[in-house]
Fold this sequence. Notes:
Blueprint: H1 2-16, H2 19-22, E1 27-32, H3 35-40, E2 46-55, E3 61-70, H4 74-78, E4 85-94, E5 102-105, E6 111-118, E7 122-132, E8 142-143, E9 152-157
Antiparallel strand pairs: 1-2, 2-3, 3-4, 4-5, 5-6, 6-7, 7-8, 7-9
Amino acid sequence: MRNTIFIEAALAAVLMTGPALSQELDGCWTRAYDKDHLRGQPGQVVEKIMFGAFPGSDGKTATADLVVVAANQGHAARAGLGGQKLVQYLFCQADKTAGAGWRCASECDSGSLEITRIDDKMLEIRTDYLMVDGSETCGGALDLAEKPGQFVTYRLYRPSGPNCGWE
C-alpha cells in the first residue's frame, strides 16, 4: 500500500509539471554559423539567428522577435537575399504537444515553429515553414525551411554579452 501511494504521488508530480510548464519562455538566444559549418550545410539559409522572447503575464503565452541574417547560399542566395537582415514577430503559446511545450506562429499564416528544447543555455527551434521578412507586411521573403515541407532545426545559445550577442 505504501509503495502504491508513493508511485501515485510521483506520477502526479510528473503530470503536473509536464512540458508546457517546464520552462518559461523568457530571454534571448542567438547563433552565428561559421564558414565551415555553412560549407558543410550548403542548403542552410541562415547565417545568423536571434530569438528574443518576452513572457506574457499568464505564463502560458509569450511574444518573440526572430531576427535572421540570410546566408548567401541555398534558396536564400537564389532569391538574392544573402546578407540581408530579416525579421518575424511571433506569438507563442504553451502547447503540450510541442517538444519542449511551446509553439510560436506568425500572423497572416506565414508559418510557425516549435520549440523542441529549452534550458538555461540552449534553445532549439524546428520549422517546416516560417517566412521572415524585412518589412512589417504579411507574408515574407525567406522561408527558414531549407526544403519546402521538410523540417529544419536551429540550435541557439544564450549569449554572454549585451544586445543578444550580435545586434
